[in-house]
Amino acid sequence: MREKEKREHDMKTGWMIWFCAVSLILGLTGNGLAAHGEKPPDKKAILLVGFGTTVPEAQKALDNMEALTRKAFPETEVRWAYTSGVIRAKLAKEGKKLDSPETAMAKLMDEKFTHVAVLPLHTIPGREYHDLQHNVQLFAQMAGGFRTILVARPLLSSHEDMERVAKAMTAHIPKERKSQDAVLLMGHGSEHHPADAVYMAMNQIFQDLDPNVFVGTVEGHPSLEELLPKLEARKARKIYLMPFMAVAGDHARNDMAGNEPDSWKSILTGKGIACETILKGTAEYPEVAEVWLDHLRAVWSHF
Questions:
Q1: Which residues fall within 8 angstroms of residue 22, CB to CB, at 6 or more apart?
Q2: What was the pLDDT predicted at 9?
Q3: What angle do CA 229, 233, 234 make, to 5 degrees?
Q4: Among this protein's residues, is 36 annotated catalytic?
Q5: Total number of domains constituting the chain
Q6: Domain check: are 195 and 274 in the same one?
Q7: CA dihedral (65, 70, 73, 79) positive or negative
Q8: Per-residue pLDDT averaged across 107-121, rounded?
């Protein structure tokens, strides 16, 4: 009997040891799995995306946009990215390192940011905007990456946006301007993209506010050539030239206000029309910047 009892006791002891060992292993593993499966704490960032500029004076517009963004979203990480490889290369030679949107997103992902709002400083939803949106969607699909990454709308994304921007720009026309003086705003344009039609729509909205205010484009419609007959019909002897781009960069300083024979200023001056240039990007006007920020707030509300 004693031998049998001893075997039963050894078996019970063995089963107890096995049970405790398995329980311990499962407990440790379970805790590990729970910790591994927990969502990391929210870590949010804003990525401002612009074409970029190498013109120091034009940098004011981007600095203003960043300052307003930081004020609207205090204690939030704010980063920059430039879409232009040419501008990034030029700035790199000056010791200024700017990332592409893709590099900036990769860094944010590597730093474990969970929510990212991308604010493009584009004027219209054209090719560059859609390229950015496409690449952001690719980052959104990466396993183990962002929990949420969203792109805000560009400046002119609705009729309400257009009216707000038109009223803001009209309010910033120099006060000394006489009613018979014309105002011509230079947009970039996107001749081969459907969004180029936004500039035609904006031209009409400005015309409804003030018949002597026009919108033209460098690379789209309406072009200066298309607007010249209308300007001449108004018999304007003076025209105020204003950029209709986020920054008053190369296009504004050369294509619009430059002294080259093919600049808007030179062409108009050649026709006997006096020109006054205002080198200020739309992102420098608080009311216009607020439209971009409202688009950012709309995205942020989904976080």
A1: none
A2: 43
A3: 125
A4: no
A5: 2
A6: yes
A7: positive
A8: 98
| Predicted pLDDT at 36 | 53
249 in the same domain as 209: yes
Please give the model's pTM, rounded to 2 decimal places.
0.86
Q: Which domain holds residue 60?
A: 44-156+287-300
β-strands 44-50, 238-243 pairing: unpaired
pLDDT, position 40: 78
For position 88, which CATH number holds? 3.40.50.1400
Q: Is residue 230 part of a domain?
A: yes
Residues 147 and 202 in one domain: no
| Residue 1 pLDDT level (bands cut at 50, 70, 90) | very low
Rounded-to-integer distance, Cα 250 and Cα 259, Å: 13
Q: How far is C-alpha 276 from the geometric centre of its chain's CA atoms?
A: 30
Phi, psi of 286 (to 5 degrees): -55, -40
| Percentage with pLDDT > 90 across the chain | 86
Asked if residue 32 belongs to a domain, the reply is: no
pLDDT digits (tens, 9 = 90+) for 226-262: 999 999 999 999 999 999 999 999 999 999 999 999 9
Question: Is 162 domain-assigned?
Answer: no
Q: Are 62 and 247 in contact (CB under 8 A)?
A: yes
Strands 213-217 and 182-187 turn out to be: parallel
Yes or no: say if 239 and 182 are a contact pair by the CB < 8 Å rule: yes
Question: Quick one: which H or E segment has residue 184?
Answer: strand 182-187
Instruction: Decide if pLDDT at 23 tops 80.
Output: no
CB-hemisphere CA count at 13 Å for 151? 24
Candidates 115, 188, 251, 295; catalytic one? 188
Using the Cα atoms of residue 215, residue 216, residue 217 and residue 222 in order, give the sign of their dihedral: positive
pLDDT at position 35 is 44
